[in-house]
Amino acid sequence: MAATGSRAQEEQAHRRFAYDALTERDKLAAELAEVYPPLAAKLADLAARVAANDAEIERVNQKLPGGAKWMPNAEVGGGSVLRVQ
User: Fold this and answer.
1) How many other β-carbons are positioned within 10 Å of the β-carbon of residue 5?
2) Domain boundaries defined on the chain
3) What element of type H or E holds 1?
4) Cα–Cα distance between 48 and 74 in angstroms, integer?
5) What is the DSSP letter of 71?
6) Which of 41, 50, 52, 67 has its Cβ near the most Cβ atoms within 10 Å?
7) What backbone phi and psi angles, to 5 degrees, belong to 78?
8) pTM listed for this prediction
9) Distance CA 2, CA 26 (A)
10) Helices (H) and strands (E) in the chain, counts
11) DSSP state of 23
């Protein structure tokens, strides 16, 4: 009978260890709450500026001056910057 009790205690210890490991979740949640809002705001601002610039580039590309080359938008023109390395 002691073996069964011992196994149950080991199982409980294993479960407790796994449960306690979830405290990392709380740390990650706190970090996310700190980092995400300003990052999201910055990305939203950037996306709005890129969209406005894309519209301007499209307008310019429709009536290019003589000898001028078509201009890509920020997403295409900045492709080398946007690639994840």
Assistant:
1) 9
2) 34-63
3) none
4) 12
5) P
6) 50
7) -95, 20
8) 0.61
9) 37
10) 4, 0
11) H
